[in-house]
UniProtKB/TrEMBL annotation:
Biological role stated in the UniProt entry: Catalyzes the NADPH-dependent reduction of 7-cyano-7-deazaguanine (preQ0) to 7-aminomethyl-7-deazaguanine (preQ1).
Keywords: Cytoplasm, NADP, Oxidoreductase, Queuosine biosynthesis
Protein name (database record): NADPH-dependent 7-cyano-7-deazaguanine reductase
Pathway(s) where this gene product acts: tRNA modification; tRNA-queuosine biosynthesis
Signal peptide range: none
Family label: Belongs to the GTP cyclohydrolase I family. QueF type 1 subfamily.
Binding site for substrate: V74, E75, S76, H93, E94
PANTHER family linked: NADPH-DEPENDENT 7-CYANO-7-DEAZAGUANINE REDUCTASE (PTHR34354:SF1)
Pfam family, one: QueF
List of catalytic residues: C52, D59
The keyword NADP belongs to this UniProt entry's keyword annotation: yes
Length: 154
């Protein structure tokens, strides 16, 4: 890989401004250094935050994103900025989780992607949201997400 492959990156290696909304956030990608191999990339965001669109109160989740790259990898700083852009964004758990998955699919065209959104209770009920692009390809080791369901103080 040469520096020319990264010439279009605008966020990596420099000061960046936090995007105010997910729509404003720019997801950047870099070439997959192993395009012929099938392997899983995992990102975990244990402190994901968004806002309830009705009450404006904060909602918290543990997100786990797994994908099998095609030609592209998501650049991790841009992903972090994208995820933190939800902090002041009002949307239901389902819209956040599925929207993140669909945005990654649109930007990366992965072979396969899944996202698990493990949301902490709102109104006493935890809501877990799962999205995937289908069945994963055979022969690829995909570890379980292993996020424990919310158990409260039992």
């Amino acid at each position: 890989m040469t520096d020319s492959l990264y010439a279009g990156l605008t966020q990596l290696g420099g000061a960046t401004v936090q995007p105010k909304t997910p729509e404003e956030a720019v997801l950047e990608r870099v070439p997959n250094p192993n395009p012929g191999d099938r392997y899983v990339v995992r990102f975990t965001s244990p402190e994901f935050t968004s806002l309830c669109p009705i009450t404006g109160q904060p909602d918290f989740a543990h997100l786990v994103i797994d994908y099998i790259p095609g030609d592209w990898l998501v650049e991790s700083k841009s992903l972090k900025l994208f995820l933190t852009s939800f902090r002041n964004h009002g949307a239901f758990h389902e819209a956040c989780t599925v929207g993140i998955g669909k945005r990654l699919v649109a930007e990366l065209a992965p072979v396969w992607l899944r996202i698990g959104g493990y949301w902490y209770p709102r109104g006493g009920i935890p809501i877990d949201v799962f999205f995937s692009t289908g069945e994963p390809p055979a022969g690829v080791w995909i570890p379980a997400q292993e996020v424990q369901p919310y158990r409260g103080r039992g």
